[in-house]
Amino acid sequence: MMGKNTRVSVIGLGNLGSALAGALVRGGCDVAVWNRTSGRTAALEGEGAVASPTLRAALEHAEVVVFALPTYAAVDDLFHDAIDDGWLKGKAAVNITTGDADQARAARDRFAAGGAEYLDGDCGSYPSAVGGDASMIIYSGPKDLFDRLDEPVIRPLGADGAWVGEDVGAANALFMATTAFFLTSVAAYIEGAAHADRHGIAAGAYADYSVKYLNTVRDLIVSSTPLMESHDHSGMGQAALEVYLDAARTVERDATGAGARTDLLTVTTRYFEEGVRAGHGTKEASILFELLRQNPTPQ
């Protein structure tokens, strides 16, 4: 049974891998590290990790192997011989490499063929947050494996580490969806800043008001979730879809008049128009969830 001083090897010491290794050392694990270029191990050795001379030595040390590599292709390339030669047999592999759900499932099958248990994960925070309260790492795969690793390995990487499903692809799928939300939000924020700038509004003033607006976004997420789960969008008395459409058209007209680009806003307006055309103008904006899940191509 794993506990304090669990033997963990961290393979690959990029920014995230190094952060994972440091957090595990501070969490009381017996940590070995290995990187193709040995120069990256010095700082971690200073914290208490042991630098393994070879990949095989690192794997022989470990009960649990943790890695965050640039791609799943890099994972397959690095571990190909180790899997075939049985170096991972009886060990638990925790892969925090970003990819899609199918890549996670293929990796699970590959590691299982070598006799290893497998959890897949994704890190939604910057490496500097790993191990702290702001760390956001999610995991998917066998729940019993997650439970066994939770206290000795997962908790040191961040108190908010969460299991999101038995399907090993679930963590990647959730990460991809939330990353889409993040990326479009970043682009929308910048598009709005350019709109404000065309009216002579300073970036600082725009930022201050935008931060306050995040409370409205948070409240909308919280209130819309039960509607999407129940598939009942009859309304909360806040703002109907047709109100959102009128607002989007007004903003688009103002931005165009000011000479600002409206690429993302134009797409958003089309979403609202599609919902209203389908007869849902008096329902909550969350009704778009039904249109998008039922009609994956634009109507």
Automatic annotation (TrEMBL):
- Does the record's keyword annotation contain DNA damage? no
Residues forming the 6-phosphogluconate dehydrogenase NADP-binding domain are: 8-165
- Identify its protein family: Belongs to the HIBADH-related family.
What GO annotations for molecular function exist for this entry? NADP binding; oxidoreductase activity
Q: What is this protein called?
A: NAD(P)-dependent oxidoreductase
> What positions does the domain NADPH-dependent reductive aminase-like C-terminal occupy?
167-294
Q: Provide this UniProt record's keywords sorted from A to Z.
A: Oxidoreductase
- Tell me where on the tree of life, at the top rank, the source sits: Bacteria
